[in-house]
Amino acid sequence: MPEEMKPESVLLHDLDSAAETDMLCIFGTGDLGRSLGLRLLQSGYRVVYGSRRPHSCGPLPPGAQVMNHVAAARSSSLIFICVHREHYGFLETLAPHLEEKVLVDLSNNLKKDVYPEANATYLQRLVPKATVVKGFNTLSAWALQNGLLAGKQVFLCGNSAEAKRAAADVATKLGLTVLDKGSLSAAREIEDFPLRLFPEWRLPLCVAVGLTAFFFFYLLIRDVIYAYVEQEKDISYRIMISLANKVFPIVSLIMLSLCYLPGVIAAFLQLYRGTKYKRFPDWLDRWMLCRKQMGLVALGFAFLHAIYTFVIPIRYSVRHKLISRVVDEMKENKTTPFYFDNTEAWGTDSFYVLGITGFFLYVLLALTSLPSVGGSLSWREFTFIQSKLGHLTLFICTAHGYVYGWNKFLKLSTYKWYTPPGYMLCLIVPSVVLVLKLLLLLPCVDRTLTRIRQGWERNQSKETVGDNKATNL
Amino acid sequence: MPEEMKPESVLLHDLDSAAETDMLCIFGTGDLGRSLGLRLLQSGYRVVYGSRRPHSCGPLPPGAQVMNHVAAARSSSLIFICVHREHYGFLETLAPHLEEKVLVDLSNNLKKDVYPEANATYLQRLVPKATVVKGFNTLSAWALQNGLLAGKQVFLCGNSAEAKRAAADVATKLGLTVLDKGSLSAAREIEDFPLRLFPEWRLPLCVAVGLTAFFFFYLLIRDVIYAYVEQEKDISYRIMISLANKVFPIVSLIMLSLCYLPGVIAAFLQLYRGTKYKRFPDWLDRWMLCRKQMGLVALGFAFLHAIYTFVIPIRYSVRHKLISRVVDEMKENKTTPFYFDNTEAWGTDSFYVLGITGFFLYVLLALTSLPSVGGSLSWREFTFIQSKLGHLTLFICTAHGYVYGWNKFLKLSTYKWYTPPGYMLCLIVPSVVLVLKLLLLLPCVDRTLTRIRQGWERNQSKETVGDNKATNL
Amino acid sequence: MPEEMKPESVLLHDLDSAAETDMLCIFGTGDLGRSLGLRLLQSGYRVVYGSRRPHSCGPLPPGAQVMNHVAAARSSSLIFICVHREHYGFLETLAPHLEEKVLVDLSNNLKKDVYPEANATYLQRLVPKATVVKGFNTLSAWALQNGLLAGKQVFLCGNSAEAKRAAADVATKLGLTVLDKGSLSAAREIEDFPLRLFPEWRLPLCVAVGLTAFFFFYLLIRDVIYAYVEQEKDISYRIMISLANKVFPIVSLIMLSLCYLPGVIAAFLQLYRGTKYKRFPDWLDRWMLCRKQMGLVALGFAFLHAIYTFVIPIRYSVRHKLISRVVDEMKENKTTPFYFDNTEAWGTDSFYVLGITGFFLYVLLALTSLPSVGGSLSWREFTFIQSKLGHLTLFICTAHGYVYGWNKFLKLSTYKWYTPPGYMLCLIVPSVVLVLKLLLLLPCVDRTLTRIRQGWERNQSKETVGDNKATNL
């Protein structure tokens, strides 16, 4: 009989002993402190709050204890500090009771660079004999309260590996994934994280704004002002749609090609250096890291271009032009203009088809860059989509541009005031990227590049490092 | 030599001892029972099935044992009950063998409110000396079988914290995230979960249907019936597209403003009460919880509006009107109508540009509400998108509405049968929301509100609670 | 005092003892080996690298040790093999030192079927006394380095359950989810996984290409070649857009109906067999597994159809036709053609409205098939969307097709060269699916089917299996 009782007693005993050790302490009974406590209790920890006024600190999650700071600190080796940095003072007076404790600093600031040192560094200075770990600060009280933690990532940093591991164990139990950012000197970076505002979008958006402004004024001069000066016609109404609908595709195409330019440059750099083990220059690294955002901004412009194109036929000016053209024709009793130009029909239709196909591929590329879609692709599939399909998209969109101007390149009237039209300017970068990419696809170049990317080095000492690298995954 | 063997032996021994304790029992060999057993085996547990006929219960996952219920129950302290509630009877007769066991009830019902008490409560009544935990019931056999558990959430509830922890440990090993719903009284809620059908979409859809119906009949009377009665023209063909294309943008704009109205009301309520620590009235809470769905329904209508607009020029009636207008003009030999109205061109083009921009921002808002995209944003980024960009979208779409009627507000002919046209009605709510939001942005109001949201209270007792709250995160 | 020190000492001691056992060994210092080591160190393991030249193997993650292979192997019971298969030779000579070790083989090949046996099987043959586990090979060095592991799935296979569990424990600590693929014979499948290129998209894409090609040539003959032969008109310019815009909706509708056909066939098969416990034929299984992809390809074609339709009015040939029609009318001084046909207006508008609604529902279906959206739906919600809404979409799109030809079915001129037009052909499959689905919805059929799907069997032996199954979940 005692033999048979054993299995279950083992498991239950296991629970009991766990309950003994897993006492966690939280300093601070604000929104974050309370939500964190609730979640810890739900994950099976016991929780004790440290408070200045244990008897009047408002509603706490059921099951949690409240004590004064000293008693609370004594009951656990891990203390979560959910207090504003401005009020850390009391921790200094508590310092003797915090010796050898792990203090997890969850604080955030409202703005960057308000204080000369990170909150966690400041805390470590106040309580030098405790071990401070910075982390968990990217969680919001709201997400904690609603249990939306599955798969979320938290950062940790600290000088003690053991202290970090204790904090990481708690995070893992909460269903979080931990990313170790190294020593406590990374605290500033971690504290700045919740304050960041689309840092990786900044460069692409700047490029987009710059290109848009340049081409807007360039086309404004060539189209509207030229017409006003030379032909004394006021066509300013065209600014809203016609002009915008020229600027958008131009910016979109250039930005799409800027997605693929750094990859091509990197490949040539690797070919020139004969190794992949040298770091790229900083500007290239930064450029490569924002390619996805660059492409999504390009898609935004392409999307606007598509919608602007769809509304063309319902515009007042377009309808007016259509009607007045018919009426004019009738009045002058011409019969010739109604000759149907087969080449023109083929040309414009090809132009539209290339545009539609390009837009379709654009959307496909954007869909696979959604985190949940991209995450379900194998590495080979992702590469296939982003590289092969990406370059195809660039090729088709560039062709879309060439077909637009196919019969205008050699006409003199195209070059108003000796300036080339916008679509010619915008074809330069994509054409360069495509030609360079084509060079890279030549069998001999491609073979060398593949070998370099598999770890081969041109100038390696015959025996040591290179050999090692070619062996290992 | 024995010194060197140590490290590896520690790890392997660890495995052995784990294998001893981690025996789990499953009652029921149906689809769910079998899939669960397969998954548990893959996660390293040993599995024993309890069955009435251990020798004829069909194919089970390889590695699992089958016994009669009594023997199976004896071998593990944790038993998964994968049996329909209708057949719980046999558990009552087993009760003596289930004492002190943890019974995890996975059952679901086919409909809501069939039984007076939750399945788990019923089970607890049948076997009072066991500890019942309700949970895992949101998993489908299909997801279990295909290992699609990563990051999924399961609910647990039960009266014993230890029993819940034992069940939660198993869930964590399976790669699931656990959300504790409290005591066994929450079992009903957990059992209803798999039966819910878009509960958070109900209110937005009701509002949408109500608004659509109202504006449809309102415009039907003003447009079609008015024309029939007063001018004896049959323009019923307009119902399909022209009328719908008036109703859609109206409903879309109103629903978008209804997304932002509760936030504004909440802010004024907080200002009036001088604290954020009082609960909002229930209706406001419910309203705020379905803002996302409200916005997505609004986008749906905006999407329909966009497509309806794009097909305008290919409609038979529109082409007919265009042609007959030209022909009429020619016959009467007028020359004046072909005067190009620059203001009209600017007006309609601005109207289209505002609409396109608004739609573009709409889509952007919707994209960030995708779980995988929103989850990758920091709190500040999410707030920026949903609040700043959201109000901008509302502003632009409202402007789109104003520009539509810019020259019609003062014309008497606009007010057929003394009723205002639909677009005027739909501008009321958005205008109110925008004006209120503007008031909130005034520096003095904004400052007070920010302080309140950081925990400050106007009528606080100087010393205790408020001070505490301002200190803590 | 010693009483009070206890809680914290327990936790810290726990860390120390863990640190003693959790030593892991990595053979290979390439990109993958280094990234894996970095991640393991971050998760709290101690890492030792085995290298042929411990003193010149390049930069390793800080905190890791490097030794020669023998010493490294001795220090851990679990060894990650991050070496190309081509260089496994040295492991054979190491075999005596690898006895009873768990070797986790992470290697991938560059192409399928290069070697007669899987890398892991080859490794097991070289080192027969070690226990080989295949796995982790779907991780890229890039994902490891950037900590993008949350919620990712890795496959494991191996002949020893204990060895697999040791590897699985490491994976769990890294935040990965483990899917056990069984014995080492599954290694080939796991090694082929990173090389797969959209296997589940192959069948849908083949069907799409086949249908597109067939209908393209069919319509080319009926439209362009017929006009050239019979009427001696060159309307080849229509190929680019008009013809494509007929092919796309046809293929889209057929593929949408092919999404729902296998479900209907399966239901009839279950009705015929009277049980759900017999496996479907292989072709049906394969078909059902690619329904989602089938539907997404159908949406792609519908999307193209929509955009092709939107650009119609800005095409040169359409404008030309419009203008020349007006001019022709005027010249011949007709007055009758401008009669407004109310039926025609209703017909075309209904046609457009059905198309728009169908497209809208299409997009809705596609959105819920996004992993992150679908994952947040309950089983009942997912079924509601994919089945109810899916069949509604099919019904509306089919109606769209019928309305297109509503007044042409009985005209003889429709059947050029005695062939039916494309849209008639494309209505066959959807109509069949809808009729069959309607049959399944008949109360008597539906009741039987529901019972079968709940486990009831028509020809069951009264007492044993069936009863069992009806009892269990």
UniProtKB/TrEMBL annotation, chains A, B, C:
InterPro entries membership: Fe3_Rdtase_TM_dom, NAD(P)-bd_dom_sf, P5C_Rdtase_cat_N, STEAP_metalloreductase
Cofactors: heme b; FAD
Ranges annotated as spanning the membrane: 203-221, 247-272, 293-314, 351-370, 382-402, 422-445
GO molecular function: cupric reductase (NADH) activity; ferric-chelate reductase (NADPH) activity; metal ion binding
Residue stretches making up the Pyrroline-5-carboxylate reductase catalytic N-terminal domain: 24-108
Main location group: membrane
Swiss-Prot/TrEMBL catalytic activity: 2 Fe(2+) + NADP(+) + H(+) = 2 Fe(3+) + NADPH; 2 Cu(+) + NADP(+) + H(+) = 2 Cu(2+) + NADPH
Keyword line: Copper, Endosome, FAD, Flavoprotein, Ion transport, Iron, Iron transport, Membrane, Metal-binding, Oxidoreductase, Transmembrane, Transmembrane helix, Transport
Subcellular compartments: Endosome membrane
Ferric oxidoreductase domain segment(s): 250-394
GO cellular component, one term: endosome membrane
Annotated Gene3D superfamilies: NAD(P)-binding Rossmann-like Domain
GO BP terms in the entry: copper ion import; iron ion transport
Family annotation (Pfam families): F420_oxidored, Ferric_reduct
Membrane topology note: Multi-pass membrane protein
SUPFAM superfamilies, A to Z: NAD(P)-binding Rossmann-fold domains
Protein origin, superkingdom: Eukaryota
UniProt similarity note: Belongs to the STEAP family.
Protein name: STEAP family member 4
